[in-house]
Amino acid sequence: MLKELREIVQRVTASSDLNEAMAELAQQTRQAMLADCCSIYLRREQDAFYLLAATDGLAPQAVGRARIPLGEGIVGLVGEKEELINLADARLHPRFKYLPEAREDKFRSFLGAPIIHQRKTLGVLVVQQKQVRLFEEGEESFLVTLAAQLATVIAHAEAKGNLKSRNWRGMLKGLAGSPGVAIGKAWVWRPRVELHKVQLRRADDLPMQHQRLDKVLQQVEEELDSMALRFQESSSAESIAVFEVYQYILKDPVFIGLIRDEIEQGWTAGSAVKRVCEQQIAQFGDMADLYLRERAADIRDLGQRLLTRLIHEDEGPLSLSEPMVLVADEISATLIAEIPRNKLKAIVSAKGSINSHAAILARAMGIPAVMGIDHSFELLEERLMVVDGYTGELLVEPPVSVLKEYRRMIAEEAQMDELFATVRSEASITRDEVKISLLLNAGLSADADIAMNDTADGVGLFRTEIPFMMRDRFPSELEQVHSYRRVLTSYVGKPVCMRTLDVGGDKQLPYFPIVEENPFLGWRGIRLTLDHPEIFLVQLKAMLRASIGLDNLSIMLPMVASLEEVRVARRLLDRAWREVSIETADEQGIIRYPSLGVMIEVPSLLYQLTELAPLVDFWSVGTNDLTQYLLAVDRNNGRVADIYDSLHPAVLRALQQIIDTARKHARPVSICGELAGDPIGVLVLMAMGYRRFSMNNSNIMRIKYIVRQSRIDELQKLLQEALSHRHTGAFKGIFGRYLEERGLGGLLRSGL
Predict the structure, then answer these.
(1) Number of helices (H) and strands (E), helices first, in the chain?
(2) Are 95 and 111 in contact (CB under 8 A)?
(3) C-alpha angle 270/276/279, rounded to 5°?
(4) In sequence order, which ranges of 639-710 are alpha helices (DSSP H)?
(5) Model confidence over 697-728: pLDDT tens digits?
(6) CA pseudo-torsion sign 58, 64, 65, 68
(7) What residues are annotated to the active site?
């Protein structure tokens, strides 16, 4: 029955209306199982009953009217027990409840399966027959399988169908793309020219078509330069790098050559752009890698921008009368750049991930963003909404009480930001005079934010892979030297720890794709660079050359799982240092041999710490990956993300083991995962004995303020109290009260 199962799921998924989907499901299921009746009972979270949502066999007029209260009837029992129930004669069961409006007198046998999505029972799927009999094992399996597959479909269809009601208000769930909260009216943007709607046309005047293409290429290039300049003035290098991707595409001789080839084959300039862009979009859109898939959106945006200029030459700038929330099916970096900063409160996008250029720009600009709200937005125009960039929630027309609470929260955040700013130039030292080092995690924004960030004690993690990702080839040694030198000179006299190339998993190079079934357990980090010493040596040499006369460089190896990887990396560093020292012997300054450390993020390293200590100079704990690998949880997977817990007992024991072993062998150790920037997390870590934390720029001042309000001796007592409890919630409760007692209860909000 696998074919029938697949067809039912496909038909329901294709339906654009929840009621239509349910009716189609009931009909197809009854036919597939050769049953006399199939019915679907659904329950909304706020309801105390199951409502007959669709049927093929019961009275049609009962749909939307017949209700079974929770705790009553066999349907209620299926939902209550969360398991399948098979009865030869339902009337003999003590929980049988007769629904006169449904006219189910003639049906005797009953088979019901719960429809469960993310541990919530959405409804019950029921088939019935007139004859008295038990359904067979194969029929049970079919219904359970169907219910399980349809749970996600039904949940999605229900949420999507909500927006069809003009008066609907409620919450839509997406991905947290950029932190923050904003309240405003929705402005739904629609592209003036959509790539797929452009009609293909032939042309006879080929020279004229080439001239038209040249003109729009020049216009769009000037637009992109202007956009990049806007962000350059705001010192956001991360934003500038986003526009560099567009410029790379626009100047790519292969991409432009394909368009010219299409013109030579007799197509108009617009048709040539459409044909090439659609081919490229299809190529990137089918890729499994998230980063590469996002490049399809870049090409679509660039193609539509070229077509807009070809079709509407008088296209002017966007004009908005008041600040708003930008809502669109797909939001591009160029669209964001066209909107005046004082008119943009937040962005909400149906498509795109937290790695999309829209999310990157939103974070750089400090505005909330929610991505992946896969719904139709036509009816959201001008409706009031709350965009919660911490939780990924979008609240449409929220009640006055909810609005009041969010406005209070926004005001509280503004007050806290002012409070945190007061310690900008102060030392990060606890009230009992324990020095804490607060370092910066940097990447795209390093050469801008680092220079401004006088609050940090150095750079604890410079992600060197970002410049690699923003090119169409491996950067040369000289290009890398310039990039690294900017960072090192921005922190003269302070440490800068550069992590060697860490690609693979969720970070792919567009020109060096790695296709694997399980990339997070595959060829990534140090595994890749040791297999390609020609890449590794160039990077090491570039780092060493960049450090001449500065003496503030340290190097860190990612994704280390074995001691042999460290030994091989050390030999390559020795070789690079000798060669660069010889080549630069006549230059001013000498090259100090850098400290070498490793990222502790692979659990196998926990059992080799004693042997590891003599091989390296320091350790840095990557709590994000270490937690994922210890708990076998992908935190970007919505189905299991709630299991990801950085305060899980196993994670805490691993962290305590690391710091205890580091002390024993006199090895400096730091934390460079998100736990370092978490208010409760940093208190727990300080209690354990950690004194070095590396975090994003946005977290440094609030963590510095927390540090200055804390005492290590008090935190150590709280840690012992929390460890005496059996549940992880004790840490949040106990350390949360510590923050509240110091007037920092607002930091307990998720994401702050």
Answers:
(1) 25, 22
(2) no
(3) 135
(4) 649-664, 679-688, 697-708
(5) 778 888 999 999 999 999 999 999 999 887 77
(6) positive
(7) 357, 672
